[in-house]
């Protein structure tokens, strides 16, 4: 018994110490509204000594305007938590919350009230405004960096053909119309689409890019249109916003649009015409406002004639056609591109490589079936693997031997020889077509076989 009493005394003293350490204004009354305890800070807040509070009726304190209105009477009447704005005798305004403490008979045993000066909320508001201004500044800087990023390798050119295209870009960028960019893989269609977005009236909005040839058809619809929570087995419980909605107030760039199935072509056409879409699993339309820029390395006219591409969608897209010629048709662009990629690679890998005239001539004479993308990879490879700072013609030949001219050695085992030839065919097909679907079509094999062989033979896939 004696031990119990000591423990109880110890607990009470600890509780008292904690209560005395409270920095906020706390007032405790009994079930009749008589003050039993106040925290030390109440002296300064209300202009009374602590001992003068004890035993006072909170109703009386309200009448004397020590605080007004009083929260405890409200709690006693409602038996619920109450929060009010209170004014002290000194004219200060406080946010006060009163909480009822009920006994087992559901009667109020005590009321605990605590208050704070709301002026710090004003400070928080000011901090919030400052943070908004900071975010706005950072957003402007990000936009500036994004604009700098737009000046990417694909827009480096000196040829008359590309200068004509650049002039057209500047014209069509300012016009709210759909745009179709055509050209072989690797010519820079994506970069041109970004350039158009950069110079359009939508340049403060998002630029959303999706490659229709790189996503299986059964997943592409959910990527484009999004879906509601639980729309199908395996869907995210939270649902998903589609790429089209993400492009709202900005630009949607659909690369390899020729790979789009007829079913999705119909749905895309409806979105273009009506400016609304339905997420998978939804019955409601969502408004969308975006500019559509599409690109393809196929002849959509031929696909239309074969019934593989909708004619009405083709005409919707082909309002302003923009064809980007392959690198082999504008060889005067190869030198500036080589020097540009060399500079970028030197900076990226902390090197100081230079290149000889003979090496440049060798690179210019190459056909470049993979166009700018292939040229960039070759120059980067030369910077990384070159044994000397000065890249020579020999170094270029050793790193860029045309795989189409390589032949198996007569003493090579048949299995290895066949594998070498297969590797060359797969590499050449992938450089030209860039998607597993098109490689499979070109080589008359299944898409799964094409994907497996590309993964086997191409290291950067």
TrEMBL record:
One of its GO terms (molecular function) is ATP binding. Keywords: Aromatic hydrocarbons catabolism, ATP-binding, Coiled coil, DNA-binding, Nucleotide-binding, Transcription, Transcription regulation. One of its GO terms (biological process) is regulation of DNA-templated transcription. It comes from the Bacteria. Residues 155-384 form the Sigma-54 factor interaction domain. Residues 121-148 form a coiled coil. Pfam families: AAA_lid_14, HTH_50, PAS_9, Sigma54_activat. Residues 11-59 form the PAS domain. InterPro entries: AAA+_ATPase (IPR003593), AAA_lid_NorR (IPR058031), Homeodomain-like_sf (IPR009057), HTH_TyrR (IPR030828), P-loop_NTPase (IPR027417), PAS (IPR000014), PAS-like_dom_sf (IPR035965), Sigma_54_int (IPR002078). PANTHER family: C4-DICARBOXYLATE TRANSPORT TRANSCRIPTIONAL REGULATORY PROTEIN DCTD, TRANSCRIPTIONAL REGULATORY PROTEIN. This is HTH-type transcriptional regulatory protein TyrR. It comes from Desulfocicer vacuolatum DSM 3385.
